[in-house]
Amino acid sequence: MTSREGLIQQAKNVLEQNWLGYATKPAPRLYPHQWSWDSAFIAMAYAHYDSPRAIQEMRSLFEGQWQNGLLPHIIFNRAASDYSPGPEFWRVYRSPHAPQGVMTSGIIQPPVHATSILHIARQDPDEDRGLAFLREMFPKLKSWHAYLYNERDLEQNGLIAIRHPWESGQDNSPIWDQALSRIKIEAGMVPEYRRVDTDIVNVTERPTTAEYDRYAYLVKIFYENDYEEAQIFQSSPFVIQDVLFNTLLVQGNRDLSIIAQILGEESRLYEQWAMQTSNTMNEKLWDITHGIYFDYDLFSGQAIHAHVAAGFSPLYACVPTAARAELILANLNTYGFCPLDEVCWAVPSYDKLEPGYSPSRYWRGPVWININWVLYHGLVRYGFLAYAEHIKQAIIKLPSESGFYEYFDPDTGQGLGSESFSWTAALLLDLLLEEA
Ligand code: GLC
Fold this sequence. Notes:
Blueprint: H1 4-18, E1 34-35, H2 36-49, H3 51-62, E2 74-75, H4 87-90, H5 113-123, H6 127-151, E3 161-162, H7 177-181, H8 197-200, H9 209-224, H10 229-235, E4 240-241, H11 243-262, H12 268-285, E5 286-287, E6 292-293, E7 295-297, E8 302-304, H13 322-332, H14 369-381, H15 385-402, E9 407-408, E10 415-416, H16 422-435
Antiparallel strand pairs: 1-2, 3-4, 4-7, 5-6, 7-8, 9-10
This protein binds alpha-D-glucopyranose.
C-alpha cells in the first residue's frame, strides 16, 4: 500500500504526464485533446497546488466557446492527428457561431465549469489574481448558462435537454438504449468514420459498433442542420432531459450566483434558474416507486427506467427532500449498488441486478471516480457520513491498489479502459488535498 504522500505524488505525475502545455488531456493515447468536463475536474485538483495552471486549464477551454455560448465538449489539439473522429468529422464551420482559429466539436458536456472556477478562485493564495480570474470568466459563464436556458430548455420548465449520448458524459449508458434503438440504420445513412479507441483499449470495454453508427448518425443531423438548435430538435429522435446534467447545472447556477455576488453583479437570475431546474427535477424526474431520479425522453414522452448510479446524483445539488434522500441512501445500500455490509469497492455505474449489466463495459457497470466523487459530496451534504466515508475510502483505494485507470470492475477493483486517466488522479487529489 502506497503512503498518502506517495499517492499524492503519483497522482500529480499523471496530470504532469498528460499536460499539453496549455491544458491537460484526459489520457495519454485514448484521449489526446482537451475535453470539457474533464478539464473542469482536473482544474479542481490544480487549484490546490498550482493556481496558475488551474486558471490556464479553464482559460484554454473557454477559448473554444462558440458565439452563441455553446461550450464544446472537445477542443482539438493540432499536434494530435491519430484521433478519430477528428475535427473534420464535425463540420462545425457550417455554424455561424463556431469560433475561428480553434477546432472544436459541436456538442456539449455537463456544466461543472462554474463550480470549478469558483473553487479555483477560492483556493488561490493570491486573492487579487483569484478575483481577476472570476471577473474574466464571469461573462463567459453567463453566456454558457444562458445558451443552455435559451436553446435547450425546450419545455420552458428549467430542464435542459441533451441531443447526443456523448453530451451526458456517460457515452454508452443503458439510459440511451431505447432512444438509440429507434434509429434504424439503412445504407448510406451513417457518415464515414473510423475508430481508433479499440486499437488502444480492449474492444469489450468500449461501446459497440451499433452504438457508434448511431453516434455518428446523430452528428450528421447536427451538421446538416448547420447546428441550428431549433431545427435539430425538430429532426432528431434523440432528445433527453438527463438527471446528471441537470443536477450539475443546479449546482453550477448556485456557484455562478456566488461568483456574481463576489463581483458585485446581479445574481438573482442564477438563483432562479437553480430553483426552477431543481423544482422541475423533483416534479418530473423523481420516481417514488424506485427511489431514484430517472431521465426523461422528450421524443417518446416517457420516463427512462434505467437504474443508473447517476440517478442518485441529485443529492450533490441538494435537490431531494430529506425523506427522498433517505430513500436514495437505502437504494444505494442494496446489493445492486454498494451494500456497506459486504465487500464493495464503490458505486457501480449501473445496477448489478439489471439485465445488461456488465462489470467491464464502460458506462454499463464499471465504477467511475467522478460519479463517486459527486455521490460522496451529496452524501456529506445530507449528513450520511458513514456511507460518504466509505465512498471516499474507495476513491482512494481503487487507484492506489489498481492504478489510475479510467474505470474499475465493481467486483474485483481491477482497472479498465485507459491507464493514467486524468480525472481519476485529479479527483483523488481533490479529496486528499482538501483534507490537508
Ligand atoms: C469518454 C467519457 C467522457 C469523457 C471522455 C474523455 O468519452 O465517456 O465522459 O469526457 O471520455 O475522458
